[in-house]
Amino acid sequence: MLSRKGIIPEEYVLTRLVEDPAEPRYRARERRARFVSKNGNCNVAHKNIREQGRFLQDVFTTLVDLKWPHTLLIFTMSFLCSWLLFAMVWWLIAFAHGDLAPGEGTAVPCVTSIHSFSSAFLFSIEVQVTIGFGGRMVTEECPLAILILIVQNIVGLMINAIMLGCIFMKTAQAHRRAETLIFSKHAVIAVRHGRLCFMLRVGDLRKSMIISATIHMQVVRKTTSPEGEVVPLHQVDIPMENGVGGNSIFLVAPLIIYHVIDANSPLYDLAPSDLHHHQDLEIIVILEGVVETTGITTQARTSYLADEILWGQRFVPIVAEEDGRYSVDYSKFGNTIKVPTPLCTARQLDEDRSLLDALTLASARGPLRKRSVAVAKAKPKFSISPDSLS
């Protein structure tokens, strides 16, 4: 939506997901079904619901959840049906009072200028939408006509309130604001502060802030209990951390959210080889907060399968200081670079810290070696000619 309007270049944004346009969009092997799609939709089909009447107990929510064509059809039919119903009532009142009989114009009618059903239908529209052309009006001749006038006005106000409320709620739904909350296409696992961490990047394209933004993460996988019970969607909450600590984030600029893989993490025994063979792993990320401009709570979701987690990579910096202010380069939002990372599980790393020490030593020697080579290349070469000695 944003790319079609020219706000964000198309190669940077696809719905709420920043992708790399150079990466192929196909895979040779079949992937497992997602529980939550990349754009946040839940991939769940509800079948064989027998108690359909429960949806009618909350008519307003049912109308808001309907698709736009169905909502507009109900919006139009509600007005047409009410106009036709009260047109029939006005015609019956005129018929019972004898106002439709020709040649009896001396008697005072209940409603003036009603001679057919068409004129009764026009009067019904005038009453309900308060047009008031002035050609037709209710007289004091029939108290029943006055009562019907009051009832039709109340019914018209109720229809206006319900249908306009549904239209407003559909246009101001929370997921509309979530379209500009973006997640990185891939998540990464690398060493941070001496521990293996699961990291992802999240950002907000709008200048209006998300107040009290919190982020949660769940691991969804197929498990089997010791008693043999198969749980197809076993959900486990895992803590997320950020630069300021806790789950609350200040989402002014893109942030890297990370989860420390420790003994309490469900990823404690995850190895690099499992990312290519562990088809039952799915990590769901949920960002929730209050929209600053409307005060409506919004929620953005995404998920990462095992083959969408990159081991031994880190996100590149995209925030820089320019001309006294911070600028964000969203063209590098999902870009990563390779970094030295142990090819073992977090459990093995905790049991043998020498793996991390060797990795730290190797990464420290790398820049020194490159620096020494650069100095050697830049060092001037001196030669002594025989003429200079004479």
Automatic annotation (TrEMBL):
<keyword id="KW-0547">Nucleotide-binding</keyword>
<dbReference type="InterPro" id="IPR041647">
    <property type="entry name" value="IRK_C"/>
</dbReference>
<keyword id="KW-0630">Potassium</keyword>
<keyword id="KW-0407">Ion channel</keyword>
<dbReference type="GO" id="GO:0005886">
    <property type="term" value="C:plasma membrane"/>
</dbReference>
<feature type="transmembrane region" description="Helical">
    <location>
        <begin position="144"/>
        <end position="168"/>
    </location>
</feature>
<dbReference type="GO" id="GO:0015272">
    <property type="term" value="F:ATP-activated inward rectifier potassium channel activity"/>
</dbReference>
<keyword id="KW-1133">Transmembrane helix</keyword>
<protein>
    <recommendedName>
        <fullName>ATP-sensitive inward rectifier potassium channel 11</fullName>
    </recommendedName>
</protein>
<comment type="function">
    <text>Inward rectifier potassium channel that forms the pore of ATP-sensitive potassium channels (KATP), regulating potassium permeability as a function of cytoplasmic ATP and ADP concentrations in many different cells. Inward rectifier potassium channels are characterized by a greater tendency to allow potassium to flow into the cell rather than out of it. Their voltage dependence is regulated by the concentration of extracellular potassium; as external potassium is raised, the voltage range of the channel opening shifts to more positive voltages.</text>
</comment>
<dbReference type="InterPro" id="IPR016449">
    <property type="entry name" value="K_chnl_inward-rec_Kir"/>
</dbReference>
<keyword id="KW-0479">Metal-binding</keyword>
<feature type="transmembrane region" description="Helical">
    <location>
        <begin position="72"/>
        <end position="93"/>
    </location>
</feature>
<comment type="similarity">
    <text>Belongs to the inward rectifier-type potassium channel (TC 1.A.2.1) family. KCNJ11 subfamily.</text>
</comment>
<dbReference type="Pfam" id="PF17655">
    <property type="entry name" value="IRK_C"/>
</dbReference>
<dbReference type="Pfam" id="PF01007">
    <property type="entry name" value="IRK"/>
</dbReference>
<keyword id="KW-0406">Ion transport</keyword>
<keyword id="KW-0067">ATP-binding</keyword>
<dbReference type="InterPro" id="IPR014756">
    <property type="entry name" value="Ig_E-set"/>
</dbReference>
<keyword id="KW-0851">Voltage-gated channel</keyword>
<keyword id="KW-0597">Phosphoprotein</keyword>
<dbReference type="GO" id="GO:1990573">
    <property type="term" value="P:potassium ion import across plasma membrane"/>
</dbReference>
<dbReference type="InterPro" id="IPR040445">
    <property type="entry name" value="Kir_TM"/>
</dbReference>
<dbReference type="GO" id="GO:0046872">
    <property type="term" value="F:metal ion binding"/>
</dbReference>
<keyword id="KW-0472">Membrane</keyword>
<dbReference type="GO" id="GO:0034702">
    <property type="term" value="C:monoatomic ion channel complex"/>
</dbReference>
<keyword id="KW-0812">Transmembrane</keyword>
<keyword id="KW-0633">Potassium transport</keyword>
<keyword id="KW-1015">Disulfide bond</keyword>
<dbReference type="InterPro" id="IPR003279">
    <property type="entry name" value="K_chnl_inward-rec_Kir6.2"/>
</dbReference>
<dbReference type="InterPro" id="IPR013518">
    <property type="entry name" value="K_chnl_inward-rec_Kir_cyto"/>
</dbReference>
<feature type="domain" description="Potassium channel inwardly rectifying transmembrane">
    <location>
        <begin position="36"/>
        <end position="173"/>
    </location>
</feature>
<dbReference type="GO" id="GO:0034765">
    <property type="term" value="P:regulation of monoatomic ion transmembrane transport"/>
</dbReference>
<comment type="subunit">
    <text>Homotetramer; the homotetramer binds four ATP molecules (one ATP per subunit). Forms an heterooctamer with ABCC8/SUR1; one KCNJ11 homotetramer interacts with four ABCC8/SUR1 molecules. Interacts with ABCC9/SUR2.</text>
</comment>
<keyword id="KW-0813">Transport</keyword>
<feature type="domain" description="Inward rectifier potassium channel C-terminal">
    <location>
        <begin position="181"/>
        <end position="353"/>
    </location>
</feature>
<feature type="site" description="Role in the control of polyamine-mediated channel gating and in the blocking by intracellular magnesium">
    <location>
        <position position="160"/>
    </location>
</feature>
<dbReference type="GO" id="GO:0005524">
    <property type="term" value="F:ATP binding"/>
</dbReference>
